[in-house]
Design a protein that fits this description.
By secondary structure, this protein is an all-beta fold. Helices cover about 0% and strands about 50% of the residues. It has no helices and 13 strands.
């Protein structure tokens, strides 16, 4: 199966950005032109970062969260956000959950946990805030998560 998308540092090109290959073509070593290649200024990186998510632990559960504010562009920007397990067994930083705009199937903001509204996933709160949240009542309650995000803007 061909890898189709890279948002962040491209291992072959050596620069950060957004890259999307054509169906069936590998984005790391493309055989033709990419559908999206931020090196050519169709989009530009507005903000990006990676850090350890905060964690709180309660009676038999853990919650991880991340909130990032960035300068408002005046419109809803393209974004990618990803939560990854922060452990040596996940050396390739495989996402646990990720989301992006304009299309995404990973945002789960309407979940209810008991009687409490609960946000899970990665989402844009508004034009200047990206958030992420995860919850575990079993399994890896003592794990750590890293959050990676990139905000893209229209080229000027």
């Amino acid at each position: 199966m061909a890898r189709r998308i890279i948002i962040g540092r491209h291992p072959t090109f050596g620069v950060s950005g957004a890259f999307l290959s054509r169906p069936g073509d590998d984005v790391v070593n493309p055989t033709g032109a990419l559908l999206l290649d931020s090196r050519y200024q169709n989009v530009a990186v507005h903000a990006e970062g990676r850090f350890r998510m905060g964690r709180t632990t309660g009676d038999g559960y853990s919650t991880w969260w991340a909130t990032v504010n960035f300068p408002d562009l005046g419109y809803r920007p393209l974004f990618y956000g990803s939560m990854t397990y922060a452990n040596p067994h996940n050396a390739n930083a495989v996402p646990v959950d990720s989301s992006y705009y304009p299309t995404s199937s990973c945002v789960n903001r309407d979940t209810t946990l008991g009687e409490v509204p609960f946000f899970f996933g990665v989402w844009l709160e508004n034009n200047w805030t990206i958030k992420a949240k995860a919850y575990a009542d079993t399994g890896p309650r003592n794990a750590d998560f890293d959050f990676y995000y990139i905000i893209l803007k229209r080229a000027t």
